[in-house]
Specification:
Length: 515
């Protein structure tokens, strides 16, 4: 919940609520910061919103690096939101400056940003202008890149994120809204509570109009937006993820039909592209998570954060994924590199065999129907092999993530339900399954370097990404030549139930690594 403004400064009435009751840390240093500390900046313009400014700048950071503005939730502080959410780790590792605005209790009894007050959410006034002035100070002092400024926040901070993106789209290249709300969902205290729960349902065009009205005549470019929501959040209900997505897809001129629908860390993830095919909005629905920021404590390449009240360990680091979506993960030392590789069509194919694997033969419908999976009308069972040239992955690189994406061609029945709970799984071979890389009968039973490394949920159109490869699957990816992926149903369907997928460039292998 969000505590509304205590009108000590301008309005004069107190409205109670409760959000993010966390212990506030001291403000002189950033817990867990590496080679730098959190410091306060006491002069950054007229500051009409009466906010405080804190920043974390890695030692030796050169000019021209990105800037991330991270906004805390109610009763939190800058020092309770920097290292806990992982942002200081990535500032050190990727090389960017971190700006943390802080609310004061004189403005709001629970230190919430006042996302529901029109005077604080309009361009050129109130808290929105104060934060813009902080950004300007960072550009002057640190030399932050004017084209790589990003905003993110949790709950009230997430609602303030949509404010900054709408009020200053010429300043921010991207944003990330965590358990937040659409811009101008509320302009009164009563409406703010209603927005949080049960939520406000407007059309995508109505939401988009609110953003466009913030800057009449502005036509873009618009910030790209990552949206995060717990499916069990009863404070800011999950409906708000949909409304925020509608607002920003409409602003970008995109629709609400996802261009990518997959899972990341086991959680549903969708990506929406604009007319040029560029990803502009993504959503993460964190199954079972309540109100808070997702973290994954640990020292791993994708891990971050410290679990606590409303900083929730769900084995997925939101700040890591957000940085990837923004494209700032290659900013500094320990940079991450990735490649999305199309399948080598000349080596793709499928093999069919009886239930025991006997009598395997190469399928013949690839050119007309695609690659078969499941049980065909002839009673034989089909497995498909996709071949990828992974030699672009450097020798010695540490592969930290991989998944395969396939495209639907046609189907008969539902092999995922024959028998119930059937799984379409992926085996990986470092090199080629059979004696040759081209499809042959021996691909059916050839040993895999790693078996059942990922699964692909049922889909009936478009594309579908597998779950992330297991550790064994990552180790099986070749750095020097060919990597093959064999797709098969875990159990042989009990009747005719099959799906055809498209070969060649319609199938891809995505690989991410660090040197």
């Amino acid at each position: 919940m969000l505590r509304m403004r205590t009108t000590v400064r301008r309005w004069g009435a107190t409205v109670a609520g409760a959000l993010l009751a966390v212990t506030t840390a001291g403000l002189s240093t950033a817990p867990g910061a590496q080679a730098a500390s959190l410091t306060e900046v006491t002069s950054f313009g007229s500051n009409p919103g009466n906010l405080k400014m804190f920043r974390y700048v890695p030692d030796g950071l050169p000019a021209g690096r990105p800037l991330v503005v991270a906004m805390h939730g109610c009763t939190q502080s800058a020092a309770a939101f920097d290292a806990e959410t992982g942002w200081t780790k990535w500032a050190d590792q990727w090389g960017f400056a971190l700006l943390l605005p802080q609310q004061q209790s004189l403005n709001n009894s629970s230190s919430c940003f006042n996302w529901f007050e029109t005077g604080d959410t309009a361009r050129g006034s109130g808290e929105a202008l104060s934060i813009k002035q902080m950004v300007d100070r960072m550009k002057t002092d640190v030399g932050s890149s004017a084209s790589q400024v990003y905003a993110t926040g949790l709950s009230a901070g997430g609602a303030m994120t949509t404010t900054m993106l709408a009020a200053y789209p010429d300043v921010f290249a991207g944003g990330a809204v965590v358990a937040g709300l659409p811009y101008r969902c509320a302009t009164t205290v009563a409406a703010a509570y209603s927005c949080m729960s049960p939520g406000t349902n407007l059309t995508a065009a109505q939401w988009g109009d609110k953003v466009r009205a913030a800057n009449p005549g502005y036509t873009g470019p618009w910030p790209k937006v990552s949206i995060w929501q717990g499916s069990s959040d009863t404070t800011v209900v999950p409906m708000n993820m949909t409304e925020v997505a509608e607002q920003w897809t409409n602003t970008h001129g995109a629709d609400m039909t996802a261009d990518v629908s997959d899972t990341v860390g086991g959680y549903p993830h969708k990506v929406y592209n604009n007319a040029s095919g560029t990803p502009v909005v993504e959503t993460f629905s964190i199954t079972g998570m309540q109100h808070g920021q997702p973290v994954d404590p640990g020292a791993g390449a994708q891990q971050c954060g410290t679990a606590g009240a409303y900083i929730l360990d769900v084995n997925l680091c939101a700040s890591y994924e957000i940085g990837k979506f923004w494209g700032i993960t290659d900013s500094g030392g320990g940079e991450e590199t990735s490649a999305t590789l199309p399948s080598v069509g000349a080596q793709d194919g499928y093999v069919k065999a009886d239930a025991s694997g006997g009598g395997a033969v190469v399928g013949t419908l690839e050119s007309t129907s695609g690659l078969a999976l499941g049980r065909g009308t002839d009673g034989l069972h089909n497995r498909s092999v996709l071949s990828f040239d992974t030699s672009t992955v450097p020798d010695g690189a540490t592969i930290i993530r991989a998944y395969v994406t396939v495209a639907y061609a046609s189907a008969s029945g539902n092999p995922w339900a024959s028998p119930a709970g059937n799984r379409l799984v992926a085996d990986v071979r470092n090199g080629c399954f059979g004696a040759a890389c081209t499809t042959a009968a021996d691909d059916w039973a050839a040993a895999a370097t790693a078996s059942d490394v990922a699964a692909i949920d049922r889909f009936t159109s478009g594309t579908k990404a597998s779950s992330d490869f297991s550790a064994a699957g990552l180790s099986a990816v070749s750095r020097t030549g060919t990597t093959q992926v064999r797709l098969r149903f875990e159990q042989n369907p009990t009747a005719t139930n099959y799906v055809f997928i498209k070969p060649a460039a319609e199938a891809t292998l995505h690989v991410e690594w660090t040197p």
